[in-house]
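Retry 2 of 3 after timeout on previous attempt. Resubmitting C-alpha cells to design endpoint.
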C-alpha cells in the first residue's frame, strides 16, 4: 500500500470512528476500553492528539519526567477533560491532513486508529468492521518492525495466515483468522484470540505479557499492559 493509500485509509477510519463517537451514550464514554486503566473517553482523546507538534511533545515529555508511556497517558488524561462532544469534530478536522506526530511515518497513525477503534468498539460490544486492505498493510508494518511490539520475537514458531486477504507471515504452527484479528494479535491484544483458529492458537496465551487479561488489555500507546515494555 503506497503512502497516499495509507493516508486515505487513515482518513476513512477517522471519519468512521468519529461517526461511532457521535453515537455513544454518557455511560459508554465512561466505560473501560480494552486499554488497561483507560476509559473510552481517554482513548478517544488520545486519538485526537496525532497532530502533536515537536515543541508540544517535548514539553509534555519533560512534564512526564522523560517517560514516554507516562507522557502518552498524561496528555490523554488532560485532553479527556474536554467535553466529549468535541472529540468527533476534532477527529473529522484531521481528515485530509498529512501531518504526523514527531518521528513517525504515516503507517503508525494507521495502526493506531485501526487498533484503538477496536479498543473502543469491542469494549462496548459494538461492531466496527476493519477494512481488510488497510489492516493487511498495518499488520505487515507491525510484523516487519521490532519496535514497539516485537511481534516476530513474541510469535516465534507461529505461521500467521489471513483468511480474508492474501497475507501470511512467520514459520511454524499455523494460526489463521481474519486480518483484523491478526493485527490485534501482532499488536499484543489478547482480544484477538476469540477470532483465531488453528493448531497454534492454544499456545498463544503465553505470548502475552503477565497481567494482560482475557479482555485484551493494552495501554493506550498500543503496548500490551504488564510485563516488559513492548
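Retry 2 succeeded. Sequence:
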Amino acid at each position: 500500500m503506497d503512502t497516499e493509500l495509507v493516508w486515505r485509509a487513515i482518513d476513512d477510519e477517522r471519519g468512521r470512528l468519529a461517526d461511532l463517537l457521535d453515537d455513544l451514550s454518557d455511560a459508554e464514554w465512561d466505560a473501560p476500553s480494552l486499554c488497561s486503566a483507560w476509559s473510552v473517553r481517554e482513548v478517544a482523546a488520545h486519538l485526537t492528539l496525532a497532530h502533536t507538534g515537536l515543541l508540544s511533545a517535548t514539553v509534555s515529555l519533560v512534564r512526564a519526567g522523560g517517560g514516554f508511556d507516562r507522557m502518552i497517558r498524561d496528555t490523554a488524561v488532560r485532553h479527556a477533560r474536554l467535553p466529549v462532544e468535541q472529540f468527533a469534530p476534532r477527529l473529522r478536522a484531521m481528515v485530509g491532513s498529512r501531518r504526523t506526530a514527531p518521528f513517525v511515518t504515516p503507517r503508525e497513525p494507521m495502526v493506531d486508529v485501526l487498533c484503538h477503534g477496536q479498543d473502543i468498539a469491542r469494549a462496548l460490544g459494538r461492531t466496527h468492521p476493519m477494512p481488510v486492505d488497510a489492516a493487511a498493510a498495518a499488520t505487515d508494518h507491525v510484523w516487519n518492525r521490532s519496535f514497539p511490539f516485537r511481534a516476530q520475537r513474541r510469535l516465534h514458531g507461529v505461521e500467521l495466515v489471513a483468511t480474508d486477504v492474501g497475507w501470511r507471515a512467520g514459520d511454524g504452527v499455523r494460526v489463521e483468522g481474519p486480518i483484523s484479528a491478526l493485527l490485534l494479535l501482532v499488536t499484543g491484544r489478547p482480544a484477538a484470540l476469540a477470532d483465531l483458529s488453528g493448531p497454534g492458537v492454544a499456545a498463544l496465551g503465553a505470548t502475552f505479557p503477565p497481567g494482560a487479561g482475557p479482555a485484551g488489555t493494552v495501554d493506550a500507546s498500543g503496548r500490551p499492559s504488564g510485563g516488559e515494555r513492548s
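Attempt log closed. The chain has a mean pLDDT of 85.
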